[in-house]
Amino acid sequence: MSSAGKSLPHDSAVGHVTGRALYLDDERPMLGELHVGFVGSPIAAGTLEAIDATEALALPGVVGCWTAADVPGHNLFGLISVDEPFLPAERVDYVGQPVAVIAAETPEALAAARRLVRVDCTEMPPVLDLDTAIREARFLTPQRRIARGDAGRELAKAPQRLSGVFRSGGQEQFYLESQAAIAYPGEEGRMVVHSSTQNTTEIQGVVAEMLGRGQHEVVAICKRMGGAFGGKETQASLPALMAALVAHHTGRPARVIYNKDDDMCVTGKRHEYVTRWDVGFEDDGRLLAIRFEFFSNGGAFTDLSPPVLDRTLLHADNCYYLPHVELLGRVCYTNVPPNTAFRGFGGPQAMAAMENVLESIAQHLDVDALDIRQRNLYGVGERNVTPYGQVVERNHLPEIFTQLAESCDYRRRREEIAAANAASRLTVRGLAITGVKFGISFTATFLNQGNALVNVYMDGTVQVSTGGTEMGQGLNTKIQQLVAEELGVDPRRVRLMPTSTEKNNNTSPTAASASTDINGAAAVKACREIKERLAAFAAGELAKQTGESGLQPRDVCFADDAVFSTHRPEHKIDFGGLCMAARRSRVDLGARGFFATPGIGFDQAAGQGTPFFYYTQGAAAVEVQVDRFTGELTVPRADLLIDIGRPINLGIDRGQVIGGFIQGLGWATAECLLYGERGELLSHSPTTYKIPAATDVPPVFNVALFDNDDNVQNIRRSKAVGEPPLMLGIAAWAAVKDALAQVDSAASRSFTLPATGEEILRCLSLAPQTAPQPSAAMPDG
Amino acid sequence: MRDSIVVFINGQRHEVRGPAALLTLSDYLRRQCGLVGTKIVCSEGDCGACTVLVGRPTADGQSLDYQPIDSCIRFMFQLDGTHVVSVEGIAEPGSLNAVQQAMVDCHGSQCGFCTPGFVMTMTGMLQNGGVGDEAAWKHGLTGNLCRCTGYTQILEAGAEAARQSSLTLNERYPAAELLAAISALAGDDVAIAGELADGEHAVTAPATLAAALEFLGEHPDATVAAGATDIGVRVNKTGVLPYRLLDVNRIAELDFVSVDDGVLHCGARASWAAIEEATTEIAPEFHRILNRFGGPQIRAAGTIAGNIANGSPIADSLPFLFVMQAEVETTSAAGTRTIPIDQFYLGYKQLALEPGELITGVQIPLPTAADQLRLYKISRRRDLDISTFTAGIRLRVDAGEITLARVALGGVGPTVVRASAAEAVLVGAPLEEATFRAAGDAAAREVAPISDVRGAAEYRRQLVRNIFVKYFLETAASATAGAL
């Protein structure tokens, strides 16, 4: 019996479909529990003069209002740079930035009270857009650089050269469960915080610091999240701090549940980027030298922007070999909430910029973009060293591109599309294949560690706890399968427990796609320790029962919910019975496993090293159709081919591939963050912020896995799948650029991401035929 | 006069009065009943996580018809005489219905937060039959957003569930008992009073139009609630419920859709779902737009009078009503009058309604074979999105010459407008591309769009300019004419 490799349902699937899976706001309130919310800054930049809660506190049911002065311990936080206040005392940096925390007996009283708190500020001129930040050199971090060869020299002497500025927009994570936390005050100032977080250790740490207590006085727990996508890696902290502050001051349980509008207005998102590019290439499109200068919109505080930018630099090559290269990056300060992690973590912005360059080269040379891409793919055994010095091993990109081009009938469809475009005055179609090579591991090497606690009970059932959190990605189910397989038991005997700092300490965030790799490997190591003890005990028991002499622990096999000797497999001891007997013989049935990803390391200052354990690779072929008169976009067909090794759970991994791709499609073609003149977010709910709906799924949608068994270094030869498929969505954007180029090169040149109807129509209007008057000037693309 | 409403929830009778009757259904389910399977995300009817099924007696009175609605923007006082089924109530305890089982088996859930809403909509779709191919499933699920799955495995679960048999809700909750209890409620007038933090609120829900008009005559300031899909959003976002509401949900005489002599007659509280169904054959172009009007949950709740009275310049129904010269029927104690739709709007959200007047019906002349009609809805997302720009163009052509032109444009001014300059260009002009180019230019000059979250002014103006030639190519000329 092998449970890994099977498409078991998600371990909470029955709870999901019956409504019995509880999220934080579904927990029954305890006696005296308070509803907690915040009051936000009315301005994007300035200083706080006064916060007056008198009227709010006079409302029936309002219990208290707390500000910076009421924070007992630390009030300044940040993983990379300690620059973000929990509650600012003087300076405010974005509209909606929490400046006061309010608690009330009912949600209605809380809502009314929030409206009655007066916040007086002195306004200062805010920095509201990336261009201003660049012009005024408002940077949050020093410049990052990765380089090889002499890009400047090679650019100057290249036979062909193009340059431009590429823009990509931000993206809201749009997890369905908003930020949430409940704090339960304990004895003697101790605190238990339940949080919808990807990072229990972070919650434990910030709550302890804020309260001025040791980490041992705080327990942070996350059972499940209703989605996260990176948005709850650092930004679950503020609501958890609010809940803990109120619980600390009142001694009562305190619940914070952001509503959707507040959540979207005050939490960070995927970084908007402006990228300057300059490329030199041969007449056949082969790249000679390239320079990228990335500017990301970090928002008001550092948050995770530096590692996001690092990943941008590390993925600027995407799938392509860059002989001479210089990659520069800066994080810009603007007065919006601090931007943060979002699936892909800087990778999408880099890859889109690179694919834009290749698409531009193809259009400039009038050569099919697929040919340009295939000529530049990383090679096997040659042309296989990244700008940062890591060798691209076990590279399947050339096969993936070839296989996908054939399976999606690329060449024939190209001709068909050209003919259709020549014949239709109403619509124009485009087609593109883009690739993904996503490095797996945290670029901060120290985070590549995980621990797991495995408790085997006397009846042979098992509880497993790891530092990994469940946000829908199926981590728990995959670890359940790995543990069941390792112990040779039915997966129904294995239960994954809520993530708690009490059981797993000093954990890394559930991020970087690597959580099954790291936490699964740790759990398997714990199982092996238990098995070792059980095997020794079972060898004795089996020998006693069968009279088999010389039976060694290594002869004991764990399978089919039983143990048996490999010599006499017909004689079994039931796994539960064995555990009961082992316990009576004082054998330890619990273990803690620890895993640290081997062989990785990255010198950030030098921009060189082997930051990644391996790469997940894939490619997508997307066809689009554009209405020439309205700019409306439809995606009639998408074909994906991705190498995720040997899946631990095909059903779950397929869901990650499809869900990631559609999320990427949303970023690349539709989702649009719009701000008002004062820096307030205008698109702050699904009415105004449009994620893909069911009818946006391409009617023809083929998802295939590249058959691959060579990822030997990772757990069960699997590959990480969480983030990479998102970047396959870039193919849709590239296909629109292709369609625009078929109308006119002027229409395609300045095209930015996302490809909204408005952006497409703007570009179409630049084409001579349909542009009676030019629209507002935009920078070059 | 009853001071409570009676609603059945998962088969159990609830008599609800006072402040509880002023709660949204989702709050009542979650906070009063502990039925937390119903999730809240957006509180504005734009994600479907809170979807429940509401059963009402069918026309033949033999069973209940269950429709999906967004419970976050439905008030308890609107639900007298209905049977609400939440995710906790769709299957026998301890078992899963076919949709639930298929969602488990097909990996239809990831984070699970949207899942109860999807399960409810899908269960409703199977109840009501007619779920064919994947496109039908997609269309039926446009009111539910999922951020994790990319929908494919949910659609696969739908197809799988359709192959299995499952207890229908009319079997799970035998209709006879419910119908008897519901019909006993139909004759009473209902008046709800409840004290909220901001004072006393009153809702009157009469059973007859006469009683409603009498009430409105006495209280011309009352807010009229039918589907309340807009009021619900306002209440959720501002926290302020109107002090006096007239709920028309119980007035049977306002709920009809009929066709008489080429005219579509709609009662004021005819739902968009009912009109969508009625127009499939007789006004396919309108039907095509209604298909994209909100999502199924909104169409099941929202009414034609609500859309008209809300007065939005981007209301999806209005371009059609404008170009077909529909008339709004209004009634007060003083009598009934009709107002041509293009005279109904006096300014942004300003209506030509007199105090004490209630919209009681709408008459829409249907297009004939002589009409070349196209309707346009441009939005950021194809489905479940508020329009950036809408247009209706209706022409009659005789011997290559345009003899009649009605053009209505939405999203380019404070109200939907007739593009009279463009109409003037069109009438009497030859049916050729140059005519439509000129009409587009004329229309672009006569509108005054603004920039907002749905699009910039210049984008809207470009759409105005382009839509005429698009119309020409789609209707009059071959769309594959060759040279650009």
Walk me through the structure.
The complex is a heterodimer of chains A (781) and B (484). Chain A has 781 residues and is an alpha+beta fold. Chain A folds into three domains: 32-126 and 173-266, 2-Layer Sandwich (Aldehyde Oxidoreductase, domain 4), CATH 3.30.365.10; 273-443 and 604-765, 2-Layer Sandwich (Aldehyde Oxidoreductase, domain 4); 449-596, Aldehyde oxidase/xanthine dehydrogenase, molybdopterin binding domain (Aldehyde Oxidoreductase, domain 4). Chain A has an eight-stranded mixed β-sheet with strand order 3-7-1-14-11-12-13-22, with helices on both faces. In chain A, strands 9-17-16-15-10 form a five-stranded mixed β-sheet, sandwiched between helices. In chain A, α6 (200-211) packs across α7, α10 (347-365) crosses α11 and α14 packs parallel to α15. In chain B, α10 (272-282) runs antiparallel to α11 (284-290). The chains are: A alpha+beta (781), B alpha+beta (484). At the A-B interface, α1, α3, α17 and α20 of A face α2, α3, α4, α5 and α17 of B.
List the helices and strands and how they pair.
The complex is a heterodimer of chains A (781) and B (484).
Chain A: H1 13-18, E1 34-40, E2 46-52, H2 54-58, E3 62-66, E4 76-77, E5 84-85, E6 91-92, E7 98-104, H3 107-116, E8 118-123, H4 130-135, E9 144-148, H5 151-157, E10 160-168, E11 180-185, E12 191-195, H6 200-211, E13 218-222, H7 237-250, E14 254-257, H8 260-266, E15 273-281, E16 287-299, H9 305-314, E17 324-333, H10 347-365, H11 369-376, H12 397-407, H13 410-423, E18 427-440, E19 449-456, E20 462-466, H14 475-487, E21 494-496, E22 499-500, H15 515-546, E23 556-559, E24 562-565, E25 572-574, H16 575-584, E26 590-596, E27 601-603, E28 608-610, E29 614-627, E30 633-643, H17 650-669, E31 700-705, H18 730-743, H19 745-749, H20 757-764
Helix pairs in contact in A: 6-7, 9-10, 10-11, 10-18, 14-15, 17-18
Chain B: E1 4-9, E2 12-17, H1 25-32, E3 51-57, E4 64-70, E5 82-85, H2 98-105, H3 115-127, H4 134-140, H5 152-163, H6 169-172, H7 175-183, E6 190-196, E7 199-205, H8 209-218, E8 223-225, H9 229-238, E9 244-247, E10 257-260, E11 263-267, H10 272-282, H11 284-290, H12 296-301, H13 304-310, H14 318-323, E12 327-332, E13 335-340, E14 345-347, E15 350-351, E16 358-365, E17 372-378, E18 389-398, E19 401-410, E20 417-418, H15 420-426, H16 433-446, H17 457-475
Parallel strand pairs in B: 1-5, 7-9, 8-9
Antiparallel strand pairs in B: 1-2, 3-4, 3-5, 6-7, 10-11, 11-16, 12-13, 12-16, 14-15, 17-18, 18-19, 19-20
Helix pairs in contact in B: 2-5, 10-11, 15-16, 16-17
